[in-house]
Amino acid sequence: MPPPPMKLKQSSASASSTNQSLTTTATSAQEARLLVHETLRISATLASSAPSQSHAQPAKQHLPQLLHHDQDFVGSSFRLICCEEIDGRRWNYVAEPDSSSSSATTFKKGSFRALSLHSPQPPLDGLMSFVRSYVVPEGFPDSVIPSYVPYMTWRALKHFFGGAMGVFTTQTLLNSVGVSRNTAAPGAVAINWILKDGAGRVGKMLFARQGKKFDYDLKQLRFAGDLLMELGAGVELATAAVPHLFLPLACAANVAKNVAAVTSTSTRTPIYKAFAKGENIGDVTAKGECVGNIADLLGTGLSILISKRNPSLITTFVLLSCGYVVSSYQEVKSVVLHTLNRARFSVAVDAFLKTGRVPSLQEGNLKENVFNFPWVKDGPVVLGPRFKDAFQEPNVYLAIEPFFEKERYVVTYNPSKGKVYALFKDQAKSDDILKAAFHAQVLLYFMQSSYNSQHMYQKEKKDEFLKFEPTAKDLEACIVESCKMVSTKYGIFKSKAKEQGWMMSEAHLNPGRARLIK
């Protein structure tokens, strides 16, 4: 049975007398209280929790937020579509039925709306949450052992004193190379130099927010960092052409190079760990760094010999940069990882659907796309999105939801964005998320096949699929076929992936945290 309609009301937008305004406000407040109580009751029922008096009390606290969301609707009857939760914060999605239609699942266009069931977050809490996203690991404190806090406290103090000492040592070095102590020059130059280094440290700190991507998408981040390193080197060379812009250019270059340093440092251990067979990761790391230092010294010596002949600066930089980027690309492509992140998972499922076999570790890593940079938006498959991103209108959700009644997830295709979305229910476990990711790849495969069959004789661009808008019947047919295939093929895919040595975990797919509450 569909949930009962909910009455939402706002004050009239037209001018009215003071007495009428007061009367309307009082009436709206009373109806809003009833709305809040009803909304919370429905949410509690959907969450299978017993109703209690404790639920009725917080209702008044949520009143201002709900009124804020509903100010555009007057005297309309709304129906609850679904509930959503993200990190303990809940939303109800409602829509207004179309009275001109005989169907109970037809709604007025543009009436789809999210109702927040929580009070606005205090500014201080928002600021602290923002800071925590930069300075502590995700899941802190449960994601680390207790000794992490004292270690990082003393480490922060060490760097504080080291940074303060750096100002004086830099000034001393400038004095030692001939800058007069009796003028303001050494202090000014030292401050400029410290500002340049400080900008680099800020860039390093901001990029550290990538968090778990350093563990799962380390190839993509490592290659992106190397590209930023070359960009920083190019900006440094540009200071020769515009010396009066030395400080801003040097700061920008240092930001890029420090971000590259973060990616190199953060991905170094997982990469060396992939090479170590036993408890010799320390030895492998030490020898790897030694090889890098030897090659760096040899490159420095060669550059000194070349510079004595006064070659073209631009030509030399272009040639060396090309060599650097090509070497970096081949470096990350040669790493063989056993985990299935999103990129390798996509390669494995696509090969399985086309050939019936799961690629080997070497084959899967070789076909992985390392150009998927962290600042680029999600690919064609999105895991754990917000409900409002996956569905533009409630009709689509109500039409496909019965197909996933026995599953702990819902998979759909949004034609306006050209992406497949996998939404998780609140009961979803690790295997449910893996199954949802597999289902999303299967649905994407069917959608692309449907698109290719309709445009077989047309020369389309590669990104034309993003504009593909199937009919409701075509989408429903693709979802039905995908459900049939997943029910028979998912277990086979898991066993074959295990045979090839792949490690499957929902954490490696780094899904979103949104959950549907039922």
From TrEMBL:
Source species, domain of life = Eukaryota
Looking at the record, the residues that make up the Protein root UVB sensitive 6 N-terminal domain are 27-121
Spell out the family assignment given in the record's similarity comment: Belongs to the RUS1 family.
- Quote the protein name from its UniProt record: Protein root UVB sensitive 6
Spans through the membrane? none
Q: Which InterPro entries match?
A: RUS6_N, RUS_fam, UVB_sens_C, UVB_sens_RUS_dom
Species of the source: Pyrus ussuriensis x Pyrus communis
Q: Where is the composition biased (Low complexity)?
A: 10-28
Task: Return the annotated region ranges for Disordered.
Answer: 1-28
Where does the record place the Protein root UVB sensitive/RUS domain?
127-355
**Which Pfam families does the protein's record reference?**
RUS6_N, UVB_sens_C, UVB_sens_prot
The Root UVB sensitive protein C-terminal domain extends over 357-511
